[in-house]
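Researcher: Hi, I'm a grad student and pretty new to this. My advisor asked me to get structures for two proteins we've been looking at. I'm not sure of the right format, so I'll just paste the first sequence and hope you can take it from there.
Model: That works fine. Here's the first sequence with its structure tokens right after it:
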Amino acid sequence: MISPRELPEHIKAQLASAGRETDTGGQAWEGRNLGEGTSHTHAFPDDDGITPASLAEALTRFEKGDIPEELVVDALADVRLFAPVVAEISRSEITEEGLVADKEADMALVSIEAPDGRKAMPVFSSVDGLTSWHSDARPVAATSRKIALSAVEDENQLLVLNPGGDITFVVRRPAMWAIAKGQRWNPSYSDPEVLTALKECARPEKSIASVAMFPGRGVGSRDRAGRMLPGGGPGPELSIELSLEPGLDQEQLDHVVESFQYRFSRDALLAERVDSADIRLTQAR
């Protein structure tokens, strides 16, 4: 499996707007009282806390199989989302009675672990979805772009929309970066520039007769009822097929694959647009 994950310089440059002294909505933690009501009222005073209509429509159509996953990501562009924050004890002391007393607590964004072990940030389209998922978490509202920038800053590789809901939609790393940059996202498996770059990686190897790409086994996801959905999975999202000339022994096969993987890992376009990929070998006819 190939998983290029280097952070592009243009993403690093934008992280200044997502500093750790504020929440994802740009509100300072200092002086905040998250115990009264929900914190989304600070940045979005007229927000009703439910899923934005445009996003709700996209998720409904996606669940029915009417639209591909990239249109769900389009619907996420600059929409209001909620990030969960929880209190973490930063200082405590032992009382005269020998008990531990909490003196100070910091608020921290929540991260979870994806099935492949990567760090992921949960986000929610509604307050009810967040509080049902984690009763002790407090919702902090921000646009998807600010949340994506904060997720990158905290070294998250994925955004997970509405975990525990009827539809859990994973926003993979290239889509998360596109949201952070305010750009549209095109899945790697349908991106002609990705195919061109893959062919360029294969070009020096005369034993590779052709290169093809397909949606990977990890593109799809399942709803709560277990039905397969056409996207929103954690990956791998790209399957690369290398068609090889016949007659290669194991050592030659290993060399071809290793050389291809090396060039893949050093290609800037592939590093930005491919989240994770697997390679399958076939014999040329």
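Researcher: Oh nice, that was easy. Here's the second one.
Model: And its structure:
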Amino acid sequence: MERWPDSQYRVGISGWRYVPWRKVFYPEGLPQRAELEYASRRLNSIELNGSFYSLQRPTSYQRWYDETPPGFVFSVKGPRFVTHMKKLADVEAPLANFFASGVLALADKLGPVLWQLPPTLGYDPDRLANFFKLLPRSTKAAAKVAKGHDGRMEGRSLLKCSVDQPLRHALEVRHPSYENEEFLELLREHDIAMVCADTAGKWPMMDSTTTDFGYVRLHGAEELYVSGYDDKSLDAWARRIRSWQRDVVYVYFDNDVKVRAPFDAEALAERLGIG
């Protein structure tokens, strides 16, 4: 299995299991079980989004690790139970359940954790600061957090990691009240990346530097989750990303409805010298 070369840029897709992609991005006859293996050889990173909707299992994370090449990196989306239902408050047990669910099986392929806030949750510095303090900053610390899981994880948890490495976090916001310098300073204080999200103008797009890595989510240029990015737009994004003084930048296309995401990702990756 050929290794992905090291790169300052990680460009990929948000999820990979989409029925409309079959016979378009995925070759005709490719079995569903081989889709991740195929996608991970076309792109050097994928954002796991199934973890947003429900707790996954250690066996699933281990299988995803085994199906992808060395040097490949996953970002993992934190659960909506934490962000949308609990709204970041009283989340010690849900965080423990998440980190116990198998995330640590990704080992050296584990990249940042994405936390996406709902459009209804406005800026509250105390709520954010309290949440940020709970976040583990290494895989060793995440394993320690995982040990606080509740009874629902009995018999389906992973509480150790084969590697000890830094664990980074990125925050995507969708309420205009976050467009203030105090919020950005709070992110810098807690070493959290501000997600630069293109949402066809529906929600704020902020690209301020708050830590040493960047995180971009491209949901659609003109229509959310639907429209693609033409050559002019991709050229502009490539220039913008190159201009950032960051050690690494993660970029994920989430415009999956009309099968634009994987092709747009490949086109941007080529512009950034990945291949």
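Researcher: Is there anything I should tell my advisor about the second?
Model: You could mention this: The chain has one domain: 9-271.
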